[in-house]
Amino acid sequence: MRASTHPDCLRVAVMAAGRPSDQAAEHVRHLIAAVAAGRCPRCGDPLGRWPASSTATPDGCVPVCIACASHEEWLAEAKEPPATPDLWPLDPDKIEH
Ligand SMILES: [Zn+2]
């Protein structure tokens, strides 16, 4: 599953949040590298054996740790703005682990 993360999906999400394309490409490389290393691209923690799908891309192609998946759900329910991938990795203190 982890290999199926789509760089294009992430790049679109990062650019939609306002990053210029050259910066977005570089940022996406870092996020993809984190996933390849088994780390959650959203917080840097280990992904664990059963990562969840981030809501950051429309097709859910980005794996995140369970804590981040819960955090995304919580933000949505609280009608808070989502933490878009241009802000990743997030400060772990802002995520309930
Ligand atoms: Zn995470």
Quaternary structure type: single chain
Q: What is the radius of gyration?
A: 12 Å
3D shape: globular
What small molecules accompany the polymer chains? zinc ion
State the end-to-end distance: 23 Å
The residue ranges in which pLDDT falls below 50 over 5 or more consecutive positions are none
What structural class results from the helix and strand content?
Answer: mainly alpha
Number of domains: 1
Task: Assess the beta-strand content as a share of residues.
Answer: under 5%
Task: Please work out how many helical segments DSSP would assign.
Answer: 3
- How is the main sheet built? 2 strands, antiparallel
Strand elements, count: 2
- Helix fraction, binned, reads 25-40%
Region (Disordered): 78-97
Describe the protein.
It is built from three helices and two strands; from the N terminus they run ααββα. It has 97 residues and is mainly alpha-helical. The protein has one domain (2-94). It has a two-stranded antiparallel ribbon with strand order 1-2. It is globular. Residues 78-97 are annotated as: Disordered.
Q: How are the SSEs placed, and which strands pair?
A:
Blueprint: H1 7-16, H2 21-36, E1 52-53, E2 63-64, H3 66-77
Antiparallel strand pairs: 1-2
Region (Disordered): 78-97
Brief summary:
This protein is mainly alpha-helical and 97 residues long. The protein has one domain. The chain has helices spanning 7-16, 21-36, 66-77; strands at 52-53, 63-64.
